[in-house]
Amino acid sequence: MSAPRPGTTSRGTPARSAGQHAGERTSGRPAAIPARPRASSSGPTPARPTARLDSLTGLRFIAALLVFGSHTIATFETTPEGDALYPFLEPGAAGVSFFFILSGFVLTWTHRPGDRAGPFYRRRFARIAPAYWVAVIAFIPLNALARPEETGELLWHMAPSFVGLHAWIPDNEYYWAGNGVTWSISCEMFFYAMFPLLIVQALRLSERARWIAAGVLCLLVIVPPIVLAPLTHGETVADWAIFIFPLQRLWEFCLGILIALWVKEGRRIRRIGLGGSLALVAVAYVIAAYAPAYLIWVAIPFIPFALTIATAAQADLDGRPSVFRHPVLVKLGEWSFAFYLTHQLVIRAIDYVLMPTTLAMALWATALALVVSIASAYVLFTVVEKPLERRLRGGSLPVSTGGAGHTPKR
Question: Is 329 buried (19+), middle (13-18) or exposed (0-12) by CB count in 10 A?
């Protein structure tokens, strides 16, 4: 059960990303969606930032499922159909981009005037640290059983991941070491560190300046892959600079901040709804199946993802129908961080035991991995993530259950 081989999406890819929540839940029943805001003569009506955005929670699980699909490449690659399926599974890795944009959106949506950096960092630590460390440590005994001779080298390469610094090292022996998906949490930790500064600066921008900033961010996402990959001829450093480097992924997070401010101010996308933005995501996915790898990770899907987040939020605020508010999807969305952290471990373990060589075996292994991943996510969320978050917050700060609002203090 070695680390993912370079050049495949057996590479760790995200989470929630950690910190990416939408739609807080205080009980088994969703809160009512507020009535559609009425426009006033003086401009858009600001949205209630405490409103539940359950569609975003449901979409989190769909994004995690895309990442899960990309990691099943390892299951199918030993079958005769593996090469044919590869291009259609690989684009799922772009689900990471959805998580990063959503993370910026949610942190901005829940931000309140007067929020201080200290309590914010404490909430973020409580939210991700317990489940993250369990997911990091869990790989060690699994690998020791499968490849005990690699344990010493593995621990050396995993050392930076214990403090969340592995995404800063341009070497896949480090940023994919152990539970490879945790590289995205390393990026999230950087985003969290920067957020108190970023939100202050974003709030100072005029509406015109925010539109300009959004355009610049889009260029910062699209241009580096187009320039770097051809110049480096696909060397590992290009993969790192395009897909892993926390500073390069910060632009998606910043775009999420701007989208949240726009929605908070009551502005709306009038010519495209949630259905239209999802159609754009589907088109982007098909294009990505035939595009070079350095474009499918971020450059192709990130704008459709950003539109989907904005239109899903406004659908909830305006009380329009959304399948993503279904209670089952919302619950799975609440578990999505735990699902993301555990799914690749489950896929590797099942591949190691079953060693599928036919399409039928690979499909069975994939279905089994999905069921076990959801079950393990439930256990990690229920036993570790939620109770330890409450304890680390000291019982005086609201507990997150994966959403974009706050639950009452407990």
Answer: buried
CB count, 10 Å around CB of 193?
14
Can you tell me whether residue 264 is helix, strand or coil?
A: helix
Please name the helix (run of DSSP H) or strand (run of DSSP E) that holds residue 359, with its range, or none. helix 359-379
Q: Contacts by 277-282 with C-beta closer than 8 Å and gap 24+?
A: 277/304, 277/307, 277/308, 277/310, 277/311, 277/312, 278/308, 280/304, 280/307, 280/308, 281/305, 281/308
Sign of dihedral through CA atoms 110, 305, 251, 191?
Answer: positive
Categorise residue 43: left if φ over 0, alpha if ψ from -120 to 50, beta otherwise: left
Q: Where are the alpha helices (DSSP H) in 233-358?
A: 236-239, 246-264, 274-289, 293-296, 302-317, 327-334, 336-354
Structure tokens at 317: 């605020």
Q: Residue 6's pLDDT band (boundaries 50, 70, 90)?
A: very low
Pair 195, 175: CB distance under 8 Å: no
- Contact between 162 and 77 under an 8 Å Cβ cutoff? The reply is no
Type and span of the H or E element at 145: helix 117-146
Could you report the per-residue pLDDT of 84-119, keeping only the tens digit for each?
999 999 999 999 999 999 999 999 999 998 899 999
Structure tokens at 410: 């407990």
CA distance 270 to 231: 40
Tell me how long the chain is. Answer: 410
Bigger pLDDT: 234 vs 2: 234
Q: Which residues have CB under 8 Å from 204's CB, separation 6+?
A: none
Structure tokens at 8: 């495949």
Q: Tell me phi and psi for residue 40, to 5 degrees.
A: -105, 165
Would the pTM count as exceeding 0.90? no
**Mean predicted confidence (pLDDT) in 272-294:** 93
The mean per-residue pLDDT over the stretch 114-136 comes to 94
